[in-house]
Amino acid sequence: MPRPLKAIGLMSGTSLDGVDVALIETDGESVAAFGPALTFAYGEDDRALFVAALEAARTLTDRDARPGALAAAEGRLTERHAQALAAFFEQHPVHRDVSVIGFHGQTVLHRPEIRLTIQIGDGPGLARAVRAMVPPPGPNLVYDLRAADVAAGGQGAPLVPVYHRALAHGLSLAGPLLVLNLGGVANITYIDGEADPIACDTGPANALIDDFMQARTGIPLDRDGAAAAAGRVDEAALARLLTHPFFARRPPKSLDRNDFREWVTEHAGLDGMSVADGAATLTALTAACVGAVLPHLPKPPRTLIAAGGGAHNPTLLRFLRARLGVEVMTADAVGWSTDALEAQAFGFLAVRALRGLPLSFPTTTGVPRPITGGVIELPLPAA
């Protein structure tokens, strides 16, 4: 058996809230130990620049192009990741001997139907910054982890299911099990015994709620689901939103952060709702999107484990229980990390990339065959 490697994962998700740094020890097939984790929050200027980059990317067809705000955003994003790593190593100097770092970057456009996915983030630049923080030769750095899957005809997302499967092997819960990541977009992994996991994006999660709250209140989230808890769900608006053809498609399938923006503008009638009612309706949409995928699964899940920022929203968890009719638990409740799970996953995926193991599968992204991925920046040669 290969020995476990010390790996750090870096994640900046579609919620645009900050950089998550998490350390694990893994051989890429199982997890030997969880290490410390840190979140480095973005400032308001950072978030504004990244939102501008999302807008600038909407018409791109060249994944290497960086027009408008994209070049500045890529530089800022790389700098913020370097700062997050520096803070992590300062707090946890014993982990400067890390073997590999998985760098997700920031997705600014995801169009797998034209074999295009763009994650900004300067991998070589971050590798240079890391080498100044740690003893030589320094770790491998693995980045651009989605591109190979999309180039081969896959959806390029979600990539985390192989990590969910590794974690699930340590649980005694009766299956089938559904792992739900509630970031800007929601995605699920369906795990039933030793069968290959089934995965897909299910629809919007925090992105629409955050954008709505930012526009109405100037605060880019509904903290603890308080606004939604005070509101009333517009069931007629929800029914209109659920007629989107995405929900009738079987997995695998994936989304761009902005895919539902125009649809919601056209069909939700948010302008006529109060802040509370709008937040309640969008929160119910997230739960209903997860419910819409259940008929496409082989069997109903027995338990749902929620992770990501949305797992801290008790109103969203309550809506999930009511609309899905299954037990809903948080990742923290089963001994995982609600906040660090996705960053941990990219450390896990980086080790798999080093070993040439598949990151994605026909049942998770629709890729024709299991496929590895990532660009590897090698450590400096020994002097």
Automatic annotation (TrEMBL):
Its EC number is 2.7.1.170. It comes from the Bacteria. Pathway: Amino-sugar metabolism; 1,6-anhydro-N-acetylmuramate degradation; Cell wall biogenesis; peptidoglycan recycling. It holds the Pfam family AnmK. GO terms for biological process: 1,6-anhydro-N-acetyl-beta-muramic acid catabolic process; amino sugar metabolic process; peptidoglycan turnover. Keywords: ATP-binding, Carbohydrate metabolism, Kinase, Nucleotide-binding, Transferase. GO terms for molecular function: ATP binding; kinase activity; phosphotransferase activity, alcohol group as acceptor. Coiled coil: none annotated. The keyword Phosphoprotein does not apply. It catalyses: 1,6-anhydro-N-acetyl-beta-muramate + ATP + H2O = N-acetyl-D-muramate 6-phosphate + ADP + H(+). The keyword Membrane does not apply. ATP binds at G13, T14, S15, L16, D17, G18, V19, D20. Catalyzes the specific phosphorylation of 1,6-anhydro-N-acetylmuramic acid (anhMurNAc) with the simultaneous cleavage of the 1,6-anhydro ring, generating MurNAc-6-P. Is required for the utilization of anhMurNAc either imported from the medium or derived from its own cell wall murein, and thus plays a role in cell wall recycling. HAMAP family: AnhMurNAc_kinase (MF_01270). Belongs to the anhydro-N-acetylmuramic acid kinase family. This is Anhydro-N-acetylmuramic acid kinase. The lineage of its organism: Bacteria, Pseudomonadati, Pseudomonadota, Alphaproteobacteria, Hyphomicrobiales. The gene is anmK.
